[in-house]
Amino acid sequence: MFDLPVETSREKRAYRQFVKYLTNEGYVRVQYSIFSKLIFNRGTLIHQMNKLQREVPLNGTVQTLVVTEKQFSEMTYLVGEPPQGMIGLRTDRVIEL
Fold first, then answer.
1. Are 28 and 83 in contact (CB under 8 A)?
2. Are 12 and 20 within 8 A, CB to CB?
3. What are the residue ranges spanned by the domains of the chain?
4. What b-and-e string marks burial along 2-12, b requiring 16 or more CB atoms within 10 Å of the CB?
5. By the number of CB atoms within 10 A of the CB, which of 10, 20, 41, 56 ranks highest?
6. What is the model's pLDDT at position 8?
7. Dist. CA 82–CA 38, nearest whole Å
8. What pLDDT score was predicted for residue 66?
9. Residue 25 DSSP label
10. Residue 60 in contact with residue 5, Cβ under 8 Å?
């Protein structure tokens, strides 16, 4: 989640570039300044965090919160529906060998 200043043209450009980066990296917009991404293991998480740190704008606030897929899938919507990219998260995955 992030809160970036958009007062000057330079700040607006930094905001647009950051949102474009998140979208291109497969993040899904949950709310206006909240994006999520499903990551399957800790190694990939560390890699993504390192990439993200290189792309964050210099001003504003950018935060991350790591939750399990099960925790995320149990999110309750009091009003409204899940965004398109979030449909299909499940907790009953089965791997057959």
1. yes
2. no
3. 2-66
4. bebeeeeeebe
5. 56
6. 96
7. 15
8. 93
9. T
10. yes
What does the chain come to in residues?
Answer: 97
Enumerate the H helices of the chain as residue ranges: 9-24, 42-55, 69-73
Residues paired with residue 3 on neighbouring β-strands, in sequence order: 61
Give the pTM. Answer: 0.79
Blockwise average pLDDT, block size 10, the chain, 97 residues? 95 96 94 91 95 94 92 85 61 53
At 51, list the tokens.
């990439």
pLDDT of residue 16: 97
Sign of CA dihedral 32, 83, 39, 27: negative
**Residue 93: both structure tokens together:** 């995955």
At a CB cut-off of 8 Å and minimum separation 6, what does 39 contact? 45, 48
Nearest residue to 85 via CA among 25, 23, 28: 28
Contact 4, 60 (CB under 8 A): yes
